[in-house]
Design brief:
With 165 residues, the protein is of the alpha/beta class. It is built from 6 helices and 5 strands; from the N terminus they run ααβααβαββαβ. It has a single domain, classed as Rossmann fold (3-Layer(aba) Sandwich). Helix 6 links the parallel strand 4 and strand 5. The longest helix has 14 residues.
Amino acid sequence: MFEGAARQAIHQLKYRGRHSLVVALVELMVDYWRATPLPVDLLVPVPLHAARQRERGYNQAELLARAFGDRIGLPVANTGLRRTRSTRPQMSLNASDRRGNVQDAFTYQPSTAGHDNMVKGRRVLVIDDVSTTGATLEACSLALKAGGASSVWGFTLARAHKLGR
């Protein structure tokens, strides 16, 4: 759950740049994964909008995905899935507003550097730090399915309390 020490650690990673916390946080993900693995071939972190990525200097979901992928032996595709528009921070929105905020905010565009479509026909696991309503994971899933993924699952470090509709 997204409370107490877990909440503090995630906020330190996300907003204070405490990258050293990634190892410990990923161990929690690995422990859960070992007990309940999913049939996937590829990890894809939830992308930040380019402006937010520049502002923050890193994407916490990508840091988690890379460390998690290393630990469970799955590749990470951090290109292709893109946030096409800047969205308001989800933290201050209710469930309905969260869905609207991220609706059509993601697209899948295969790399133009001569690489094939990495998700086509693959079973994809979307990685994020926290899920509250699942709106971001759903929006990413729709873009990945449109890009050719055969199935899409979501996996997060923490689950926040659900908001009212």
